[in-house]
Each structure stands twice: as structure tokens, then as C-alpha cells.
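I am writing to request your help with a piece of structural work I have in hand. Thank you for your consideration; the sequence and its C-alpha cells are set out here:
=====
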Amino acid sequence: MALKTQTGLTAKAERKSEQIQLVSFFLEGEEYAISIANIQGINRMGEITKLPNSLPYVEGITNLRGNIIPLINLRKRLGLPVKEFDKTTRFIVIEYGSNLYGFIVDFVNRVLRLPKASIEPPPPASLKIDAKYVTGIAKYENKLIIVLDLTKIFTDEEFNVISNITNS
């Protein structure tokens, strides 16, 4: 019986110590984060080629080391006020499926390593953005960071439309 209790405690301690790595960034003065797992890089804004008749939150495309990448303005997609790009504006290159996408943010803050246990479900009505885009709320250094789920920011149909931009 003592062995079972010890094994149970060990398993619980292992779950509690599981780490997750996130990249945090700001939009409209609020700190957000996404898992580092799909991030290919962080880049300064450069030349954007506008596309006619594209989705309202697709700013256009850019050529990054030979890859044509659609640039998605996360402010627009999440329903936040639009602002002009400035010297701190960055785009985070994400690989989703077999495609690359650039997510435009106000500025990238840092890479975080947190225990998975520090991320809690989001409160449904207290966010500036739709809770369906949120995986959870991370507690870090007395701050709350909104963790986004990039797989929920677009429907499959929207991903297909955006993917077809670069596969044409």
C-alpha cells in the first residue's frame, strides 16, 4: 500500500513539474503568448505586397528567404483596434500543417518556460478578445498572460483560403 501512495505522489509531482515554452508578445497593451513548438522565427516588418480581395485581416504577403508568407494582422483577427506598424512591430513565423504564416504583433517580449500547472482555463467574460481563441491564462511573475490557441484563430476554411494564397 505504501508503494502505491509513493508511486501516486511521484506521478503527481512529475505532472506538476512538466514545463511548457511560450513566446510572449503584446497587442493593445495586453500580454499574450503562444507555444514555441510551431514557431519558425521572429522578424521585423519589411515590404508587404497587398493582395486584392483577400480576407480583411490578411495584410498581404512577404518574401522571407525565398518563402512567400501570408501576413495576418492579429489585432484585426482578434477584433482589437488597428494601429500603424512601427519600429517595434514584428511578425512571428508559424508553421501550421505544411504552410508558413506570419502573425503580426505589436512587439515580441520574451520566451517563457512555465510549469503546465500554472496555466488555468480562461474566465469566460473578462477578456478583450473572444474566449474561443484562448487556451488558458498563465500566471507568471504576478502577471496574467493570455495563451492563444492558433488552431482556433481560424476555421479550416479560412486556413485553406490563406494557404491557397501561397500555393497558387
Q: What stands out?
A: Confidence is low (pLDDT under 50) at residues 1-6. Residues 19-166 form a domain with the OB fold (Dihydrolipoamide Acetyltransferase, E2P) fold (CATH 2.40.50.180). The radius of gyration is 18 Å. The chain has one domain: 19-166.
